[in-house]
Write a sequence for this structure.
């Protein structure tokens, strides 16, 4: 446990920098407004600043905690559920998972407490039932392989049909419910479930279908609340704005936050408990993970708990009153329209502070192997949310029905989904749900409510709906990116155009990574001392493969070389690879990763190692004096290497050769065997097989070697 904590410290510093980059722009905008056009009391400003500090620390702990706990829990549970191949079991467990995770979602509680006309318990249970039902539909879609656009047409058509029969007080709340449901608790788990469930399929579209769960789960709450609106008579209740803080000194300021902490300590504990109990049941029945993996998940859960408590305390106590008051001040004067550009500016930056957005961006980058970078996703979401908030403020000022925005927006988004690559469609609809998280519920929604109060509008019909607007525009923005990408991919292929170190107008745009990894760009391409940038997506993906799928890398090495190395030798090689930052070596690729683990290492002993009896290496060793091949004791396919007394035998891997044949890169390595420091015959050739290795990495029914996986996680964690 101490080792896990120590190794998480550098990552916490990394997450702290990311959190500062996300939150500081929002703080800067609010400060500029407070000192210019929207003066606020010192009490509100101090509460906002302390809340911002708590949000930064909360995001730091949460993002690392979700990476260490929620994501691996979801992937493993999803794989276990579908591995049984028992459809009734999949459906029942899917519903229970969706129901429990939704009840655990803090965002939903925040929204429910702000809705004046519906009891919070009734709203939460209805939404949870909707998520559970549609998580079942999402599982079926992935297992059967139904195209997401067809289901979107069906369900959103049903939504807008029901909307014509529902009282207007329920419309905005229903669409907001779909947005807040997919928050910091739900998204990491559900998206990881998608990866786990899709892994059970072996077709080439399985990775594409790993997205779309969040999109489907966002539909369920909307239909549930609309159905509730038909059957339930809303209570007559008036909107109660948040209490504006008044503090005389720093002690009272801290007292204000300290009073809120117990509430969120208990609330997040209740939220995490169902997930922990559910995972514990899976661990006892089917998972049976080793202690090190469980320890890492346990530490991650503690980080998640601390992060969410700090985040929600800072957001609710510090951000919510400030957002409400700023909305009132900005629209209370003669220049009401200024709320539109200011709202757009805040929307652009506020999505960067959403905890679940970080999880989505990383997941997209990993699944697409860097083809869609986290940075590109972040920019697309920021642009979409900025437009969303601007339109929401137009609604607040004019009182236009939300349907005038949602119907054409969703019609356009669903319409282009039939011509956009389906991976982009699934990511877009997932992103819509993810973008509308706790920052939207605790700052943007109060901002809209405050503005609505100032202009004398209807809170329920005009202010509510900002979450729905935030959830809509990313659907369009990201799909348009996918459409542009498809158009670019349809252009005639120009081989080796990337070896040009600059833009060629009308032909290609310069790509540094492609240029530096092209054998025609530089005669020194094959040098191994060239390094990628730490932020390089290819390098990051190689690191994740080595850390998370090391047992598959070892298998590929074993099959290509004939050598089955002991865990001590593998640990030494992996440690050297870590210390040398081998993933940043431009010579390392998705094709040769197993070989590059040993490339250039000092001689490794062969004594006590095992060799495939059918390999050329076994024949070479069997003919050598002083070397004996004995039964391994665990497999008829392998022999153990023994020597007479004081005979030193070892191997080195070097002399990497690569050439392009028929537009295809082929690579070989020479495996040298030394006995007493002298070569044992000519070197053996080790070939790479990119197609076969890729198939191994993506094999769905892989039997994990937990010992090797735990070792790799220990070395590379």
């Amino acid at each position: 446990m101490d080792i896990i904590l120590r190794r998480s410290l550098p990552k916490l510093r990394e997450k702290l920098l990311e959190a500062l980059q996300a939150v500081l722009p929002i703080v800067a905008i609010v400060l500029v407004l407070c000192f210019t056009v929207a003066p606020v009391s010192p009490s509100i400003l101090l509460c906002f600043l302390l809340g911002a500090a708590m949000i930064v620390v909360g995001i730091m702990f949460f993002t690392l905690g979700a990476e260490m706990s929620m994501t691996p829990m979801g992937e493993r549970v999803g794989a276990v559920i579908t591995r049984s191949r028992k459809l009734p079991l999949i459906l029942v467990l899917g519903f229970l998972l969706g129901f429990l995770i939704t009840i655990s979602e803090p965002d939903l509680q925040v929204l429910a407490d702000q809705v004046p006309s519906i009891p919070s318990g009734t709203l939460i249970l209805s939404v949870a039932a909707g998520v559970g039902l549609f998580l079942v539909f999402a599982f079926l879609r992935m297992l059967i392989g139904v195209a997401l656009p067809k289901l979107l047409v069906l369900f959103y058509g049903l939504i807008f049909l029901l909307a014509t029969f529902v009282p207007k007080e329920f419309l905005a709340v229903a669409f907001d419910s779909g947005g807040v449901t997919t928050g910091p608790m739900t998204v990491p788990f559900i998206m990881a479930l998608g990866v786990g469930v899709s892994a059970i399929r072996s077709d080439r579209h399985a990775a594409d279908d790993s997205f779309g769960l969040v999109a489907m789960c966002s539909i369920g709450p909307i239909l549930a609340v609309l159905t509730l609106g038909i059957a339930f008579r809303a209570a007559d209740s008036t909107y109660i704005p948040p209490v504006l803080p008044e503090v005389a000194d720093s002690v009272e300021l801290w007292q204000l936050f300290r009073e809120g902490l117990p509430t969120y300590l208990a609330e997040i504990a209740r939220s995490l408990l169902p997930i922990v109990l559910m995972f514990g049941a899976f661990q006892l029945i089917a998972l049976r993970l080793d202690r090190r993996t469980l320890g890492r998940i346990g530490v991650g859960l503690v980080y998640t708990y601390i992060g969410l408590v700090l985040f929600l305390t800072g957001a609710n106590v510090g951000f919510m009153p400030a957002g409400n008051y700023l909305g009132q001040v900005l629209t209370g004067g003669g220049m009401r329209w200024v709320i539109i550009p200011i709202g757009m500016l805040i929307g652009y930056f506020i999505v960067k502070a959403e905890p679940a957005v970080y999880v989505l961006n990383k997941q997209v980058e990993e699944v697409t192997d860097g083809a869609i970078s986290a940075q590109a996703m972040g920019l697309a979401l920021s642009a979409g949310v900025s437009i969303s908030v601007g339109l929401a403020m137009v609604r607040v000022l004019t009182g236009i029905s939300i349907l005038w925005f949602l119907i054409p927006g969703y019609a356009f988004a669903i319409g282009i989904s039939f011509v956009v690559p389906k991976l982009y469609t699934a990511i877009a609809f997932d992103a819509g749900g993810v973008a509308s998280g706790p920052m939207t519920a605790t700052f943007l929604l109060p901002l809209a409510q405050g503005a609505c109060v100032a202009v004398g509008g209807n809170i329920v019909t005009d202010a509510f709906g900002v979450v729905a607007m935030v959830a809509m525009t990313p659907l369009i923005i990201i799909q348009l990116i996918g459409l542009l990408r498809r158009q670019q991919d349809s252009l005639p292929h120009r081989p080796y155009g990337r070896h040009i170190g600059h833009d060629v107008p009308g032909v290609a745009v310069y790509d540094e990574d492609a240029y530096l990894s092209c054998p025609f760009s530089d005669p020194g391409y094959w040098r191994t001392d060239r390094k990628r940038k730490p932020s390089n997506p290819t390098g990051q993906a190689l690191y994740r493969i080595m850390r998370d799928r090391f047992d598959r890398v070892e298998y590929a090495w074993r099959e290509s070389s004939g050598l089955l190395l002991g865990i001590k030798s593998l640990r030494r090689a992996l440690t050297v690879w870590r210390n040398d930052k081998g993933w940043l070596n431009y010579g390392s690729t998705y094709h040769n990763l197993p070989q590059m683990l040993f490339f250039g290492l000092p001689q490794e002993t062969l004594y006590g190692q095992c060799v495939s009896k059918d390999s050329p290496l076994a024949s070479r060793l069997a003919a050598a004096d002083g070397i004996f091949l004995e039964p391994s004791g665990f497999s008829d396919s392998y022999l153990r290497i023994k020597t007479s007394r004081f005979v030193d035998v070892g191997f080195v891997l070097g002399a990497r050769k690569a050439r392009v044949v028929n537009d295809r890169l082929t690579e070989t390595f020479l495996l040298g065997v030394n006995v007493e420091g002298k070569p044992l015959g000519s070197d053996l050739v080790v070939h790479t097989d990119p197609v076969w290795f890729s198939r191994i990495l993506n094999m769905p029914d892989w039997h994990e070697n937990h010992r090797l996986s735990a070792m790799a996680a220990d070395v590379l964690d």
